[in-house]
Amino acid sequence: MLKHLKFFAFIILMGAACSKEAATNNASSGNTGAGGSLAKFTIAGNYLYIVSGANLNVFDISKAAPVPQPTVWLNGYAETIFPYNDKLFIGSTTGMFIYSLSNPKAPVLLGEARHVRSCDPVVANDTIAFVTLRGNSACGPAKDGLYIHNIKDLLNPVLIKTVEMPTPHGLGLKDSLLYICQQANGLSIYNVKDPETPVLRTTIEDDYYNDVIVYDDLLICYVQSGLKLYNISKPAHPQLLSNVAN
Question: Under a CB-based contact definition with an 8 Å cutoff, are residues 101 and 44 in contact?
Answer without folding.
Answer: yes
